[in-house]
UniProtKB/TrEMBL annotation:
Keywords: Acyltransferase, Transferase. The lineage of its organism: Bacteria, Pseudomonadati, Pseudomonadota, Alphaproteobacteria, Sphingomonadales. Residues 1-147 form the N-acetyltransferase domain. This is N-acetyltransferase domain-containing protein. The keyword Acyltransferase applies. InterPro entries: Acyl_CoA_acyltransferase, Bact_Acetyltransf, GNAT_dom, UCP028520. SUPFAM superfamilies: Acyl-CoA N-acyltransferases (Nat). It comes from the Bacteria. One of its GO terms (molecular function) is acyltransferase activity, transferring groups other than amino-acyl groups. Pfam families: Acetyltransf_1 (PF00583).
Length: 148
């Protein structure tokens, strides 16, 4: 998972091994494809996570109960095989069963990520805010989808 994350730092963000392990240890949901998530993974935490990410903190300040998709990465060889949709479907079911109110995430607006934007829109996510991430050269669009 760490190698896959490092190959997609522009779309997500950099994590070292300790940071990745900390997220895994407190994951609300972790979906993987292939051994150790080397081909695809989705990692999500809930509002109780101990996580300093400014994006996570943005949602924490606005939603009392939520699941936050921190990163979803699919290796190029695994794209268009339905992994993203499978991960999201399982996450939505788990979030609803745990009585969360929303599933939240962000998509890069700058640099743009039109494929991710279209994917999230097709799954029913709606924009609830935007932020410029200082020092990272990114603008993100915050998205939520109701559970259930």
């Amino acid at each position: 998972m760490l190698a896959l994350n490092l190959a997609h730092v522009l779309e997500t963000s950099s994590l070292d091994l300790a940071g990745m392990q900390a997220l895994i240890d407190q994951a609300f949901y972790l979906g993987t494809c292939a051994a150790g998530g080397s081909e695809a993974f989705l990692l999500a935490v809930d509002q109780d996570a101990d996580y300093a990410s400014p994006n996570f903190q943005w949602f924490r300040a606005r939603y009392p109960r939520f699941v936050y998709i921190d990163r979803v990465i699919v290796a190029p060889a695994q794209r268009q095989k339905g992994w993203g949709r499978r991960f999201y479907t399982a996450l939505f079911e788990a979030a609803a069963a745990a009585r969360h109110t929303v599933v939240a995430c962000e998509v890069n607006a700058e640099p743009p990520n039109p494929a991710s934007e279209a994917f999230h829109q097709a799954l029913g996510f709606a924009e609830v805010g935007r932020a410029v991430l200082e020092g990272r050269g990114k603008t993100v669009t915050y998205l939520v989808r109701a559970c259930g």
